[in-house]
């Protein structure tokens, strides 16, 4: 869904990644419903209407009603979910997502679990993160600053853009102690934490890089930015393909951080020292690259893996985009950024 305006905070766009689906396995355990394993979820659409999220299921044109639809047509069926549910009395469930754990609230069987189960054809639960928090898996600006104080190695524009191994994000962070709720450690003391984002609150990509990806496909075929699922897309005459490999910060207009619209002004890491003198006062700090997986081969129109050349985008990128030593076997498109830092305007 393309937004003209959005309110930004350290956890991402307002209301983003607060809900998640869990598949119920035969043994009663749960599996996170993620698009790489459940591509049919691409046919679920969301829109905000007042204080509700309106979810619509639109099966592909050739898809018939699933076995759990009870004879009721699922085409354009809607479900309304409150943006801010009352969690009092709701059952909780433990969430394990990329090594950062928390607890979430079950929204309830009727109508939520039943509706999604009917759409997808298997039993699922809808959960809400509420006051739950997850550790940041990408480096936070605070972690970077602490590393700078203790490291004797010089920090260069290229070297800091290669820090990306997910394993390094997880190790060295304290695990919850006995009797402590997952997520209740150092992140409870500040506002650097995640909801259901995978590793960082924001994912930034450029249209120039996407055009380069499309150029690898047969004439007349293009790939859609939706496959890469960024929160922020940057375009403009000064942005060339793969520029985002070297960006250190992204400036966002103050009105965007306060809920209004505004433009984006990207700056390379070499210009980072004087970036505070610009008009923008919200900064998204570059913390890692995003290693891609088979999810970029999904056809969002059918909710299945794409056929032909479109289903080989990952393989095509692996030829020359394995540029991050922390993601040895994964190509890079998108940068993960965290911490929308609002600062006072520096005098010119």
From TrEMBL:
It comes from the Eukaryota. InterPro entries: MoCF_Sase_C. Residues 175-348 form the MOSC domain. Pfam families: MOSC. PROSITE patterns: MOSC. Residues 168-192, 257-276 are annotated as: Disordered. SUPFAM superfamilies: MOSC N-terminal domain-like (SSF141673). Residues 264-276 have a biased composition (Basic and acidic residues). This is MOSC domain-containing protein. It comes from Apiospora marii.
């Amino acid at each position: 869904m393309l937004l003209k305006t959005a309110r930004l905070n350290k956890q991402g766009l307002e209301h983003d990644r607060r809900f998640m689906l869990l598949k119920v396995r035969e043994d009663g355990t749960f599996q996170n419903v993620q698009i790489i394993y459940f591509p049919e979820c691409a046919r679920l659409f969301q829109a905000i209407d007042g204080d509700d999220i309106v979810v619509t299921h639109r099966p592909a044109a050739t898809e018939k009603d699933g076995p759990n639809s009870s004879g009721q047509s699922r085409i354009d069926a809607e479900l309304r979910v409150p943006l801010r549910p009352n969690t009092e009395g709701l059952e909780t469930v433990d969430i394990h997502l990329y090594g950062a754990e928390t607890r979430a609230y079950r929204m309830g069987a009727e109508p939520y679990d039943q509706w999604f189960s009917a759409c997808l054809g298997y039993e699922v639960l809808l959960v809400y993160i509420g006051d739950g928090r997850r550790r940041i898996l990408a480096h936070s600006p605070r972690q970077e600053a602490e590393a700078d104080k203790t490291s004797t190695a010089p920090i260069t524009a290229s070297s800091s853009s290669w820090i990306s191994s997910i394993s390094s994000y997880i190790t060295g962070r304290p695990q919850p102690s006995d009797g402590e709720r997952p997520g209740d450690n150092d992140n409870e003391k500040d506002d650097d934490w995640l909801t259901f984002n995978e590793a960082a609150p924001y994912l930034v990509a450029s249209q120039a890089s996407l055009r380069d990806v499309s150029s690898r496909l047969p004439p007349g075929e293009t790939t859609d930015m939706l496959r890469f699922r960024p929160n922020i897309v940057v375009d403009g005459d000064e942005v060339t393909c793969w520029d985002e490999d070297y960006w250190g910060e992204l400036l966002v207009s103050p009105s965007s951080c306060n809920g209004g619209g505004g433009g984006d002004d990207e700056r390379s890491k070499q210009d980072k020292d004087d970036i505070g003198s610009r008009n923008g006062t919200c900064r998204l700090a570059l913390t890692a690259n995003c290693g891609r997986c088979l999810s970029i081969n999904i056809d969002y129109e059918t909710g299945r893996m794409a056929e032909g050349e479109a289903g080989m985008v990952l393989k095509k990128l692996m030829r020359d985009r394995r540029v991050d030593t922390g993601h040895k076997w994964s190509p890079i498109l998108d940068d993960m950024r965290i911490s929308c830092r609002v600062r006072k305007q520096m005098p010119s």
